[in-house]
Amino acid sequence: MKNLICNNLSVNHSDHLCIDGVDTVELAQKHGTPLYVMDENRIRERCRTYRDAMANAFGEGSYPLYASKAASFRQMYRIIMEEGLGTDLVSSGELYTAASVGFPLWKAYFHSNNKTDFDISYAISEGVGYFVVDNVEELDAIDRIAKEKNTRQKILLRLTPGIDPHTYEAVATGKVDSKFGSAIETGQAEQIAKYAMGLDNIELMGFHCHVGSQVFDSDVFLRASEIMLEFIALMQSRYGFVTRELDLGGGYGVRYLESDPEIDISSNIFEVAAHVKAVCARHGIDVPSIRMEPGRSIVADAGLTVYTVGTVKRIPGYKNYVSIDGGMADNPRYALYKSSYTVCLANRMTSDAPTFKCTLAGRCCESGDLIQEDVILPADIKRGDIIAVLTTGAYNYSMSSNYNRLPKPPVVMLKDGSDYVAVRRESLEDVCKNDI
Length: 436
Fold this sequence. Notes:
nine-stranded mixed β-sheet; eight-stranded parallel barrel; 12 helices; 21 strands
């Protein structure tokens, strides 16, 4: 049996994989496959961990912002609203989704390296709390549109502290040569900060950085906060600017494999807080309100994806393939950057010793449509068996597509032993509903 890498997973008397005590095979029978399954209790638990740790470690003015891009749909915004989190948004679509359920947009921070005039105008009209500003062109556009709307817009400036998080290159965002933000090292951060201070329709509240994703300890947050606070002290001494907010970016990593470490999120946050307070004291500046932006670590291990096996292809002397009824259309992460996953035979978790080494392949007409290679499953795996891919709550539904004109799977959420549909399965009609 595969290691159950998350404590909300179990095996029942029928030898079926369960999440939050609910049988995944029964869910597949009820809702069909492919199927995204998400554990609401787990999501709320993670929200509270971040919320309470940040309030206790940094003070009541500090709180987490849920990173919408990890999983954006209406029920997610209802949950994080009820749990008292803010949110970061990266598009008008995410903002519209949040607004549609009454999310308090004064707690919303609008990111992206290339906001259009429509994005800016729409967000200001909807009452977005902050823009996280990436560059001078955007700053000028916000100042101009805010003036047209007779308002003064709060912003944070996104800076790059030059930190290498030693993570996937595709998700490393804090280096000097990143497409995001203004580099401190080159002097561009000081230039844009000074410029922002002089704009009539801009209220500069502070600064933002994001060093990357899948961070398993606090080292990069300690290094980034040191650089950011040195910059904040420089802005105060040189320009008299007092920073009210510092956003340190993303949350911590999650377990995709048994070899990945478990993280005590709360203790790591307290470690960062102690360092931030010490650095502020050393520079003689007040501790700003702190934001963090967990997304993956809020939803990833709350989710798994259930598939049905279609074909089993054995190529003697070469390799084996197990093909499922989903693939890169519902999970493109392996195709994009070779993401690791734990794969289980959900309908027979313990009955057979796994000996069959294979590639879990998708149904798309694309050679690169793979979910995972070198998977070990029972040798008698066959058509109709149920596969579960674990830790898919983040960046699966949100990155899904209709490639090959495949309808997107539904999102079924679990709460206290019951299941409900949060996002319905697309129909064939849905796939072409915008065609003319």
